[in-house]
Design a protein that fits this description.
There is one protein chain. The protein has six helices and 14 strands. By secondary structure, the chain is an alpha/beta fold. The protein folds into two domains: about 40 residues, no CATH class; about 200 residues, DHBP synthase, CATH 3.90.870.10. The strands form three sheets. A ten-stranded mixed β-sheet has the order 5-12-6-7-11-8-10-9-13-14, sandwiched between helices. A two-stranded antiparallel ribbon has the order 1-2. A two-stranded antiparallel sheet has the order 3-4. The longest helix is centred in the N-terminal third of the chain and has 12 residues. It starts with a strand and ends in a 10-residue tail after the last strand.
Length: about 250
């Protein structure tokens, strides 16, 4: 097993003291009294859709900070999320979704202040995005130096960004105080994104570290708009009305 590092893992509230989590790229491991055993089940937390419990949000944020991979609700559908700079969690996300090198990842932001640090925006693009956010849109734009190169499109050096209109997602982003690397929770053998938190836990129990459930989400992913060129281009029509960009 890889060398271990000390972290404050969110299971402390369930009776765990300080835990040691091994720095492995797969599911997290925990150690107590000298014994190693796999964290074989994902943390499952039900939260209120309009008033998410702060304690639950903090626990999930701690999972993300410790390198965990989570499933969480948005204003379009469930998404997988992890820290922007954590390569191990990114590899796990890629494996679950079977993503190739050309996939546009999305950086989910709390507000325009965060978004503006990650992508290059001129005045006309700013007005377009401002009119459509928060909401179920993902915008493809040239990335700044704040974005790790492994998250950019290999040729275009672009990345997806969005600001969700969902209270649970916003509460999590506020607690993290950093963007969340995300991808729609659409599995390779499925035609539509997963919508039920309990089903997500059952299916991905050994592959992710936490599930936030605030009730069923929709089945449409975001509308993806490429704003990296002179004219907007709709790459995917989804939950957001694409006509405003046509």
């Amino acid at each position: 097993m890889a060398a271990s590092r000390r972290v404050a893992w969110p299971y402390q509230s369930a009776g765990w003291s300080d835990l040691t989590v091994a720095a492995v790229s797969g599911p997290a491991y925990r150690v107590e009294a000298g014994e190693n055993y796999a964290l074989s089940v994902a943390m499952y937390l039900e939260v209120h859709p309009d008033n998410p419990q702060p304690r639950s949000i903090r626990r999930v944020a701690d999972v993300v900070r410790a390198g965990g991979l989570i499933a969480y609700p948005t204003d379009s559908c469930f998404a997988l999320g992890c820290q922007m700079g954590n390569s191990g969690s990114l590899d796990r996300l890629r494996e679950i979704r079977k993503l190739d090198a050309n996939h546009h990842f999305t950086l989910v932001c709390r507000d325009f202040a965060q978004l503006g640090q990650l992508v290059k925006i001129n005045n006309s693009v700013y007005r377009l995005i401002k009119a459509a956010t928060p909401g179920p849109y993902t915008f493809i734009l040239p990335a700044t130096k704040e974005v790790p190169r492994r998250l950019m499109h290999p040729r275009k050096r672009t990345v997806g960004v969005r600001i969700p209109d969902h209270r649970v997602a916003q509460a999590l982003l506020a607690e993290l105080d950093e963007p969340l690397l995300s991808s729609t929770l659409l599995l390779p053998d499925q035609d539509e994104p997963m919508t039920n938190g309990q089903q997500i836990k059952q299916l991905l129990d050994h592959q992710i570290d936490a599930v936030i459930d605030s009730g069923d989400c929709g089945t449409e992913p975001t509308t993806v708009v490429d704003l990296s060129q002179d004219e907007p281009q709709i790459l995917r029509a989804g939950a957001g009305d694409p006509s405003r960009f046509e």
